[in-house]
Amino acid sequence: MSKASEIIAIALAEVGYREKASNASLDDKAANAGSGNWTKYARDLAAAGYYNGNKNGYAWCDVFVDWCFFKAYGASEGQRIQCQTGPLGAGCIYSVQYYRQKGRYDNTPKIGDQVFFQTGGEIGHTGIVVEVTSSTIVTVEGNSSNQVKKNTYSRSSSYIAGYGHPLYSDADGAAATPTPSPAPAPSLKTCEAKAPLLKKGDTGNTVKNAQALLISKGYACGGQIVQGSEVPDGDFGPTTEKSVRSFQSQKKLDTDGIIGSDTWTALLTT
């Protein structure tokens, strides 16, 4: 039986792990510390065929969460419990989509949940809820100041976008403490609008997310090639625009080279 407490124990045991400057000393918590996004978490999941490519060298907050479930239950069962029905669970926006497709994403925290954070209306970070009170949550997050870190937040924080509820078979006492009058939290409508319109000249994490989807479908975006796979660079340049137009044409969408709601839907669901 899968329990929230099993995931929490694994996550807490990793607190203090530092990401690595290079692909070396990945199993040592402190050695080779740096900001190169190299971790044992991405290495292990790549070996297990977890995603659509090797994610070492990428931002790894979502990879860390997936790794905890992988360590507890293995690849197939771990992904099922996390509601992941495709190979794009290494990205926060895609993980949110998987939970939403199962009807398991809202604004009420439970112990063992996957919490998602937003900056400027854009989901870009995630972690595991390990404690819940009437006013706060405590999390364990990968890639928090380049390490696995324990953090505390107000439940009314605008930084919190929402919570994905894994399919644990035993609730394990995970229900959140009721809050008599919680402060307003982002609604599902707000969370649905986390993939804004993108066009040539835009930059940032959302561009990287869109590029990762395009790359996974065989469309080049002009990024560097690392270990045989293209790495999204977050720059919506001419190569990305050309690939967007090609993808839109293939899906019989308006070929304007702009990633709007119809193109996002096609990227995320086809």
Kindly describe this structure.
Residues 173-194 have low confidence and may be disordered. The chain is built from nine helices and eight strands. Helices cover 32% and strands 15% of the residues. It has two domains: 4-190, no CATH class; 205-269, Muramoyl-pentapeptide Carboxypeptidase, domain 1, CATH 1.10.101. The chain has a six-stranded antiparallel beta sheet. α1 (4-13) crosses α3 (61-73), α2 packs across α3 (61-73) and α3 (61-73) packs across α4. With 270 residues, the protein is of the alpha+beta class. A hairpin with a 2-residue loop joins β2 and β3 (122-132).
Mean pLDDT: 85
Biggest β-sheet description: 6 strands, antiparallel
Shape annotation: globular
Terminal-residue CA separation? 33 Å
Low-confidence stretches: 173-194
The strand order across the widest sheet is 1-6-2-3-4-5
> How many distinct folded domains?
2
Strand elements, count: 8
Instruction: Find the structural class using helix and strand composition.
Output: alpha+beta
Question: Topology as H/E string?
Answer: HHHHHEEEEEEHHEEHH
Helix content: 25-40%
**From the alpha-carbon coordinates, what is the Rg to the nearest angstrom?**
18 Å
- Beta-strand fraction estimate: 5-15%
Tell me the number of helical segments per DSSP (H or I, 4 or more residues long): 9
Condensed summary:
Helix content is 32%, strand content 15%. The chain has helices spanning 4-13, 40-47, 61-73, 75-81, 92-101, 188-192, 205-216, 238-250, 261-269, and strands at 105-106, 114-119, 122-132, 136-141, 149-154, 160-164, 225-226, 229-230. A six-stranded antiparallel β-sheet has the order 1-6-2-3-4-5. It has a two-stranded antiparallel ribbon with strand order 7-8.
